Amino acid sequence: MSGDSKVKTTESTPPAPTKARKWLPVLDPSGDYYYWWLNTMVFPIMYNLIIVVCRACFPDLQHSYLVAWFVLDYTSDLLYLLDIGVHFHTGFLEQGILVVDKGMIASRYVRTWSFLLDLASLVPTDAAYVQLGPHIPTLRLNRFLRVPRLFEAFDRTETRTAYPNAFRIAKLMLYIFVVIHWNSCLYFALSRYLGFGRDAWVYPDPAQPGFERLRRQYLYSFYFSTLILTTVGDTPLPAREEEYLFMVGDFLLAVMGFATIMGSMSSVIYNMNTADAAFYPDHALVKKYMKLQHVNRKLERRVIDWYQHLQINKKMTNEVAILQHLPERLRAEVAVSVHLSTLSRVQIFQNCEASLLEELVLKLQPQTYSPGEYVCRKGDIGREMYIIREGQLAVVADDGVTQYAVLGAGLYFGEISIINIKGNMSGNRRTANIKSLGYSDLFCLSKEDLREVLSEYPQAQAVMEEKGREILLKMNKLDVNAEAAEIALQEATESRLKGLDQQLDDLQTKFARLLAELESSALKIAYRIERLEWQTREWPMPEDVGEADDEAEPGEGTSKDGDGKAGQEGPSGIE
């Protein structure tokens, strides 16, 4: 046993990190450091995607800023090299646990396509500058192989940003710009190949005033490519086969681009509508229902104003449905961070267990009331309590005009009605009229939800009932005699229940004995029947007796017809 325990301890304990490796920690792929490194890698990748092609197609750009291009090129190469090192220090999940062993990380990374692409993107192809000259940036096209890292950065940002739909639109616009940029560079390169100014389709002759400037060359090419890819028209007709092929390829690219744009925008709009439907109730169905049922205009206006208030002020009434896909513990943590401070203001919930408050927080239902709307009326049955989150409510008389008190944010009411306190003179009825003065946001906690939670916390239930009695005593609404009578009645009821339980146990015991006796009698009867069956099997059947008589008759005739000896044996034998 000791040997086994030693082996298990050795296998489960990870090796301690050495001092030499502490300065290079393992990154969590879902952590902040890894996320910001991905955002850093966006810049060198976008630089190679945009600038390298532009330098290859616009020679003036390459020649004018050669030193700057060298600095930027090798800075991006350095970042590419560091990115490979980051890969070797980025953990991965195995059975839900982050693997931090660098040997396992390296072994896993070198077996992926990502490692091969990363190595290919760092092949020093620009070493050919020594023989071909430094003005051939197309030697660096292998840097495009690091594009998957760009997509990974975009995916992480889309997950983390608070405005995913806006980011999707911005990402789509960036893709469109890159496509038009590449197409404009290819158009200028094709124009230079065919000859500037040879026909109306190619770029005009740079000898013309204004067309020799680099900025004009790029802007003209970008504008021409935009016209083609957007199929706006108003472009010169192609005159050569190369120009026709270029136009056909651009038209096909434009069709695919339009399909992509329409699909992406439709997805964004659908997601926005879905998010609105999840956060806010659908008012179109309610409006149609009121129109079909001919609801009066005043009430219809109130309903529309209520929906408009929710939309403008970003009020949510279905938090449970929004958070339903989160794990239970995570959903509880989110609800606690949002609502625990509000719930802890309620006097009867103060000094309760933290786990009880967490359970109650999940039961809170947000509600929004319009100006002049009654939250409760005097005499109503109290099935829930309310906590004021925002707004003002008035305690009014029966006429609805006279105000006795004004309740503000952080106050609560109706808490006594949801706790069955013995001797409560008001019972479970509301004792006041509560009306919303403006738009008010309240949290509602129902009696059923509270009872369900308190069933698991009997001590907390006793504490809350005691606090409720103290509140009723201060309000002079606790009948002590009735409470004592109710307690005595409850004790008598419990005593009777205990007696009934005891009688039920006795009946069960007697019934069990009867069942045992019945089973014993049944076994005895079955045994006796089996013995009788074995005894009757030895008795001769009537058919067997008849056959024996038939066989005896021929023997008697023979004895009479014989010499008399046989006939004499019968009587002598009988005698």
Automatic annotation (TrEMBL):
Coiled-coil residue windows: 475-524
Keyword field: Coiled coil, Ion channel, Ion transport, Ligand-gated ion channel, Membrane, Sensory transduction, Transmembrane, Transmembrane helix, Transport
Entries under Pfam families matching the protein: CLZ (PF16526), cNMP_binding (PF00027), Ion_trans (PF00520)
Membrane-crossing segments per the record: 34-58, 172-190, 244-265
Originating species: Apodemus speciosus (Large Japanese field mouse)
Residue ranges occupied by any Cyclic nucleotide-binding domain in the UniProt entry: 348-454
PANTHER family: CYCLIC NUCLEOTIDE-GATED CATION CHANNEL ALPHA-4, CYCLIC NUCLEOTIDE-GATED CATION CHANNEL SUBUNIT A
Extent of Acidic residues compositional bias: 544-554
Region Disordered, residue ranges: 538-575
Catalytic activity, as annotated: Cs(+)(in) = Cs(+)(out); NH4(+)(in) = NH4(+)(out); Li(+)(in) = Li(+)(out); Rb(+)(in) = Rb(+)(out)
InterPro entries linked to this entry: CLZ_dom, CNG_cation_channel, cNMP-bd_CS, cNMP-bd_dom, cNMP-bd_dom_sf, Ion_trans_dom, RmlC-like_jellyroll
PROSITE patterns: CNMP_BINDING_1 (PS00888), CNMP_BINDING_2 (PS00889), CNMP_BINDING_3 (PS50042)
Protein name per UniProt: Cyclic nucleotide-gated cation channel alpha-4
Topology in membrane: Multi-pass membrane protein
Subcellular location as annotated: Membrane
Lineage of the species this protein comes from: Eukaryota, Metazoa, Chordata, Craniata, Vertebrata
Entry superkingdom: Eukaryota
CDD domains assigned to the protein according to its UniProt record, in alphabetical order: CAP_ED (cd00038)
